[in-house]
C-alpha cells in the first residue's frame, strides 16, 4: 500500500496574500480557544469567569468569520497554520492541540460562518478531553458524534481524493458526513453471524520521531499528577491573557494555591508554581499594565499561617533548599518585608537565616526605614540580624536608629551596632557613638571601638581618650586594652602626645620591675604609631637609660620606624 504523507497540494488551492490583521485575528481566536478550554477544566459550568471566556471566544470567532470568511487551519505536528502563516504552536509538549490533531490524522480544521455557541462548547469539550492512549475515541470520531455542521475536519486521505479528482473544495463534503455514510454503507450482519470488524481503508505509517513522540506522551501521561496539569493550565492562561483584570484574577488564584501548598507541606509543587510565576514577565503579552497588576496581586500574600508553616518546614525538614526559599520570598516582593522579618525572628537554622538576611537586603535596599520598627523587638536575635541587614544596605539615615542600640542589654547586638558604626565612621554622629563604646562593659568592644577611632583620624577623640588613660581605673584594665588606648593616642595625636609618652616611658617603679616593663611597652606602642622625628628622638634618648631587656624592646621599635621611613 502506498504510504500517504498528506503533503500533496490540493488541486485548485491557491496561496493568497493575507494581511497581518487577519493573521492576528486568527491567532487571537486560537489563543482564546486554548485559554477557554483550559479554564473549563478548572471551573464548573456556572462559574462567571468560565462563562466570560466562552463569550469572548464566541465574539472573536464570529467577528472574524463575518469580516474575513472561513478559518481553515492546516495541521502540522507542532503547529497550526492559516494561509501559510503559523498562528499557534507548542513544541514543548506532545499534548498540544496541533500534535493531538496531527496524530489523529487530521490535516485541516475548518470553521465556517454561522457557527453557534453550542458548537463552540462541544468543540471545547472535545479538545479539552485528556487523550486516553488506549481509547478508540479520537478527535475525528468525537467530532462525528457531536455533529457540528460549521466545524469540519479533513483527514490525510482527503488530500489524495481531492488531488486525484481535481474538483471540489475542502468542505463540500464535511468529514462528519463521510464518516456517517461509511457507517451507513455497511449492511448489518445477521444475528447468527458475528459482525465483521471494519478494516481501515488506508494505513498511515508513523515516522520514528512520531513513534518517539507517542512514547513520551504516554510516559508524561502516566507520571503527570492532577496538580501538574493545573499548573500547566494556569501558566497557559496567564501567559496569553491580554485582559489585565482577568490576568490579575489568575495571579491571585496562583498565589493562594502556593500558600495552600506550603500549608500542606507540598513544597515541590509550590516551587513549581513560583517558577511558573517568575516566567510570566517573559511573555510577549506582559505589558506595563500587567506588571503593575502582577506586583499588586503579590502584595501582602504571605499570611501568618504561611510564616508558621515555613518555619516548621525550614527548621524540621530538608524539603526546601536555600535557593528555593530565596526565590519564594523574592517573588512575593518588598510588600511582604514585615512577614519575612517575622520569619527571620523564628527560624533557627543558621544557613536559612542567612538566606532571609540576603533576601531582606535585596528587597529593602531602597527603603531601609521599613526595618526600623523591628529594632525594638523583644527577640534580640531578630534585632541583631536586622542590624546586619541595615549595615549591608549602608544608608546614612540608618545611623541614628542603629546607634541608639549601643546600650542594648545583649552584647551580640552591641557588637553588630559597633560593626555598623565602622561602616559610618566618616560621619560625625558615628564618632560620638564610638566614644560611648569606650565605656562598654565588654573589653573586646572597647578595643574595637578604639581601633575604629584610630582609623577615623578624629582629633576630637583625643581628649576623652587621654581622660580615660589618666584615670585611676585605667590601671585595672589588662595590658591588651591599655595598648589599644596608647596606640589610638599615637595614631590620633602624633607629636602632640609625644611628651605624654615620654613621661610614661621614664617612669620608675623601683620595687615592681614588671610594672615598669608594662609602662615601657605602652609608651613604645604609642610612639610606634606616631613615627615622627620627635618620636624617634625620645625613643633613642630613653633607650640608653633602660636595662638590657627594655632597651632591646625600644631599639626594635626604632629600627622598625627607620625602616618604614626608608621605604617611604
Secondary structure layout:
Layout (H helix, E strand, L loop, with lengths): L19 H23 L5 H21 L2 E5 L3 E4 L2 E5 L7 H7 L2 E6 L5 H12 L10 H8 L4 E5 H10 L9 H10 L23 H16 L2 H15 L3 H21 L2 H13 L8 H11 L5 H13 L5 H11 L4 H8 L5 H15 L15 H14 L5 H5 L7 H13 L4 H9 L6 H14 L5 H9 L8 H15 L4 H8 L7 H18 L2 H11 L4 H20 L1
Helix pairs in contact: 1-2, 1-4, 1-9, 4-5, 5-7, 9-11, 10-11, 10-12, 10-13, 11-14, 13-15, 14-16, 15-16, 16-17, 17-19, 19-21, 21-23, 22-23, 23-25, 24-25, 25-27, 26-27
Descriptive notes:
It contains 27 helices and 5 strands. The protein has 568 residues and is mainly α. Among the domains are: 20-187 and 205-221, no CATH class; 457-568. Strands 3-2-1-4-5 form a 5-stranded antiparallel beta sheet. Strand 1 and strand 2 (79-82) form a beta hairpin. The protein starts with 19 loop residues before the first helix and ends with a helix. The model is unreliable at 1-15 and 162-173 (pLDDT under 50).
What are the defining features of this structure?
568 residues; mainly alpha; five-stranded antiparallel β-sheet; 27 helices; 5 strands; rod-shaped; disordered N terminus
Total number of strands: 5
- Describe the main β-sheet briefly: 5 strands, antiparallel
Could you name the ranges where pLDDT drops below 50 across 5 or more consecutive residues? 1-15, 162-173
Shape by Cα distribution: rod-shaped
Beta content comes to: under 5%
Mean pLDDT over all positions: 80
The helix/strand class is mainly alpha
Helix content: 55-70%
Radius of gyration based on Cα positions: 40 Å
Task: Give the helix tally.
Answer: 27
- Taking the alpha carbons of the first and last residues, their distance comes to 96 Å
Strand order of the largest sheet: 3-2-1-4-5
Amino acid at each position: 500500500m502506498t504510504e500517504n504523507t498528506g503533503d500533496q497540494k490540493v488541486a485548485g488551492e491557491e496561496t493568497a496574500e493575507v494581511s497581518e490583521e487577519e493573521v492576528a485575528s486568527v491567532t487571537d481566536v486560537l489563543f482564546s480557544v486554548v485559554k477557554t478550554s483550559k479554564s473549563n477544566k478548572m471551573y464548573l459550568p456556572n462559574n462567571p469567569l468560565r462563562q466570560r471566556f466562552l463569550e469572548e471566544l464566541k465574539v472573536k470567532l464570529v467577528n472574524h468569520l463575518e469580516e474575513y470568511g472561513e478559518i481553515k487551519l492546516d495541521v502540522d505536528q507542532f503547529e497550526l497554520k492559516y494561509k501559510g502563516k503559523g498562528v499557534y504552536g507548542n513544541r514543548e509538549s506532545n499534548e498540544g492541540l496541533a500534535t493531538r490533531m496531527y496524530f489523529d490524522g487530521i490535516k485541516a480544521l475548518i470553521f465556517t460562518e454561522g457557527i453557534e455557541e453550542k458548537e463552540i462548547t462541544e468543540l471545547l469539550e472535545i479538545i479539552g478531553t485528556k487523550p486516553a492512549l488506549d481509547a478508540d475515541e479520537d478527535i475525528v470520531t468525537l467530532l462525528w458524534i457531536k455533529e457540528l455542521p460549521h466545524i469540519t475536519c479533513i483527514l490525510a486521505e482527503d488530500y489524495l481524493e481531492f488531488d486525484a479528482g481535481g474538483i471540489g473544495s475542502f468542505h463540500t463534503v464535511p468529514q462528519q458526513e463521510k464518516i456517517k455514510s461509511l457507517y451507513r454503507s455497511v449492511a448489518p450482519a445477521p444475528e447468527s453471524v458475528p459482525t465483521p470488524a471494519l478494516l481501515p481503508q488506508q494505513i498511515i505509517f508513523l515516522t520514528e520521531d512520531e513513534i518517539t513522540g507517542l512514547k513520551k506522551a504516554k510516559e508524561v501521561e502516566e507520571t503527570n499528577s492532577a496538580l501538574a496539569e493545573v499548573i500547566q493550565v494556569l501558566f497557559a492562561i496567564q501567559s496569553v491573557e491580554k485582559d489585565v483584570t482577568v490576568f490579575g484574577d489568575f495571579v491571585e488564584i496562583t498565589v493562594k494555591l502556593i500558600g495552600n501548598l506550603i500549608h500542606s507541606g507540598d513544597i515541590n509543587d509550590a516551587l513549581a508554581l513560583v517558577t511558573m510565576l517568575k516566567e510570566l514577565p517573559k511573555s510577549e503579552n506582559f505589558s506595563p499594565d500587567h506588571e503593575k497588576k502582577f506586583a499588586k496581586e503579590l502584595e501582602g500574600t504571605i499570611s501568618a499561617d504561611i510564616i508558621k508553616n515555613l518555619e516548621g518546614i525550614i527548621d524540621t525538614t530538608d524539603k526546601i533548599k536555600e535557593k528555593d526559599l530565596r526565590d519564594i520570598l523574592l517573588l512575593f516582593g518588598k510588600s511582604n518585608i514585615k512577614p519575612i522579618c517575622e520569619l527571620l525572628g523564628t527560624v533557627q537554622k543558621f544557613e536559612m537565616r542567612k538566606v532571609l538576611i540576603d533576601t531582606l537586603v535585596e528587597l529593602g535596599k531602597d527603603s531601609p526605614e521599613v526595618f526600623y520598627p523591628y529594632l525594638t523587638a523583644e527577640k534580640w536575635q531578630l534585632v541583631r540580624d536586622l542590624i546586619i541587614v541595615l549595615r549591608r544596605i549602608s544608608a546614612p539615615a540608618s545611623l541614628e536608629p542603629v546607634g541608639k542600640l549601643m546600650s542594648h542589654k545583649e552584647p551580640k547586638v552591641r557588637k553588630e551596632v559597633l560593626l555598623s558604626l565602622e561602616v559610618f565612621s566618616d560621619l560625625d554622629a558615628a564618632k560620638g557613638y564610638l566614644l560611648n563604646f569606650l565605656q562598654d562593659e565588654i573589653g573586646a568592644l572597647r578595643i574595637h571601638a578604639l581601633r575604629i577611632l584610630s582609623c577615623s583620624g578624629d582629633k576630637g577623640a583625643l581628649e576623652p581618650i587621654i581622660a580615660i588613660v589618666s584615670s585611676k581605673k585605667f590601671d585595672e584594665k589588662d595590658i591588651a586594652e591599655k595598648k589599644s588606648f596608647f596606640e589610638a593616642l599615637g595614631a590620633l595625636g602624633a607629636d602632640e602626645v609625644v611628651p605624654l609618652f615620654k613621661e610614661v616611658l621614664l617612669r620608675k617603679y623601683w620595687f615592681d620591675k614588671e610594672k615598669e616593663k608594662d609602662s615601657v611597652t605602652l609608651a613604645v606602642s604609642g610612639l610606634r604609631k606616631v613615627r615622627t622625628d620627635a618620636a624617634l628622638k625620645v625613643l633613642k634618648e630613653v633607650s640608653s637609660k633602660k636595662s638590657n631587656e627594655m632597651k632591646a624592646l625600644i631599639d626594635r621599635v626604632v629600627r622598625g620606624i627607620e625602616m618604614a621611613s626608608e621605604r617611604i
